[in-house]
Specification:
Layout: H1 4-27, H2 31-52, H3 61-71
Helix pairs in contact: 1-2
């Protein structure tokens, strides 16, 4: 059984990293970078929480392979 404390620890660490990262980006007024960073942080946080909860996360390799084959 997964401890709720481990999930909260991951969320706290993510919030700390986001706060530090966003302070530099917002200071330089890089709005596009802020949006891209927030999307990437959100996706990675969701994946990490799913892994902590022992939920199977599918590999994106097959989808990427199909996209590359369509391009080639």
């Amino acid at each position: 059984m997964v401890s709720i404390c481990s999930i909260w620890l991951v969320v706290f660490i993510y919030l700390l990293v986001i706060f530090i990262d966003m302070s530099f980006l917002l200071k330089n007024r890089c709005i596009k970078s802020v949006i891209v960073s927030m999307v990437m942080y959100a996706v990675s946080l969701i994946v990490i929480i799913l892994v902590i909860l022992d939920i199977s996360v599918p590999s994106p390799a097959k989808a990427i392979e199909k996209i590359v084959r369509m391009i080639i």
